[in-house]
Amino acid sequence: MVDLAAADPRLVIEVRRETLGYVSQFLRVVPRVAARDVVAEVLIGRGTDEARARAEADALLLRLNIPPRLHGLPPATFSGGEQQRVNLARGFIGGHPILLLDEPTASLDAANAAVVAAMIREAKARGTAIVGIFHDIDVRDAVADRLFTVAQLQDAA
């Protein structure tokens, strides 16, 4: 157990790198870096051989319907849905024990949302703890074990 509020910053970084995967609805990456390298960076940072990390990144990008011709291109040139799928690949590649999902299917069509729902179910079956925010009710219902509704606070006036 680690008290993150009191831990040394280096320990916090290590815990985050090894424990937490994160997928936001927005992709923020270094410009001019290939999609495969954006995804592989997670594994490379954890000591995986670069060739193996890139091969795993390519496989995950393919699963998320990113065509091979795009793997070597920077995701800044991609559509919103393609960028989101690169972000999903980056979040899922590490096999982290905890995965945080912020509207993971917000920019996806139904077919790609179904792929993501399958990936979430597979991660859960491996024992990954998943905390997600979903506005896509179909995906939410397909993957959620528990729901916590967040309601807007009422004005006290």
Write up this protein.
By secondary structure, the protein is mainly α. It is 48% helix and 9% strand. The chain has seven helices and three strands, in the order H-E-H-H-H-H-E-H-E-H. A three-stranded parallel sheet has the order 1-2-3. Strand 2 (98-102), helix 6 and strand 3 (129-133) form a beta-alpha-beta unit. Helix 2 runs parallel beside helix 5 (80-93), helix 3 (50-63) packs across helix 5 (80-93) and helix 6 (110-125) runs parallel beside helix 7 (137-143). It is globular. The model has no long low-confidence stretch (mean pLDDT 91).
Which range best describes the helical content: under 10%, 10-25%, 25-40%, 40-55%, 55-70% or over 70%? 40-55%
Mean pLDDT: 91
The class by helix and strand makeup works out as: mainly alpha
Provide a count of the helices. Answer: 7
Please trace the helix and strand order, writing H or E for each element. Answer: HEHHHHEHEH
> What can be said about the biggest beta sheet?
3 strands, parallel
Strand order of the largest sheet: 1-2-3
The protein's oligomeric status is single chain
Strand content: 5-15%
CA radius of gyration? 17 Å
Q: List low-confidence stretches.
A: none
- Strand tally: 3
Per the principal axes of the C-alpha atoms, what is the gross shape?
globular
Amino- and carboxy-terminal Cα gap: 43 Å
